[in-house]
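step=encode ok
step=design start
structure_in=
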């Protein structure tokens, strides 16, 4: 038989375990890796059947200004030196298809002031397309 003080002690230990479990950090969704390549500019070629624009987004959701809208078989380049992002930050394009979906690039690249350009291609249709870094 458990005494009243014994039940109280169990309740306190149980609630401490619950608090500890709630305070424990969740497992990371994906491991942090260094983004490659390291580039100063990001370009997106429109190979899709739609008009599009893009912004650059960081891992924590900061956004650059969007490019102008452009049709198939054209591209735009954003120089990271003209954005508010600091060197070393990881970015990827966030493509907006006119009257369609918004799709992020498949991988991040790192910002280095080195004059190099990472080129992505947007391919598909307004509601079903991908944004892929060319290697």
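sequence_out=
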């Amino acid at each position: 038989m458990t005494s009243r003080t014994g039940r109280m002690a169990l309740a306190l230990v149980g609630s401490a375990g619950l608090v500890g479990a709630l305070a424990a950090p969740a497992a990371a969704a994906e491991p942090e890796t260094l983004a490659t390549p390291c580039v100063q500019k990001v370009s997106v070629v429109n190979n899709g059947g739609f008009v599009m624009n893009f912004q650059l987004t960081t891992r924590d959701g900061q956004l650059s200004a969007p490019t102008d809208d452009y049709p198939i078989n054209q591209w735009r380049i954003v120089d990271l030196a003209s954005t508010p992002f600091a060197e070393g930050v990881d970015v990827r394009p966030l493509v907006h298809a006119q009257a369609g979906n918004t799709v992020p690039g498949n991988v991040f690249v790192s910002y280095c002031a080195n004059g190099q350009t990472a080129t992505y291609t947007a391919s598909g249709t307004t509601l079903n397309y991908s944004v892929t870094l060319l290697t």
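step=design ok
step=annotate ok -> The chain has one helix and nine strands.
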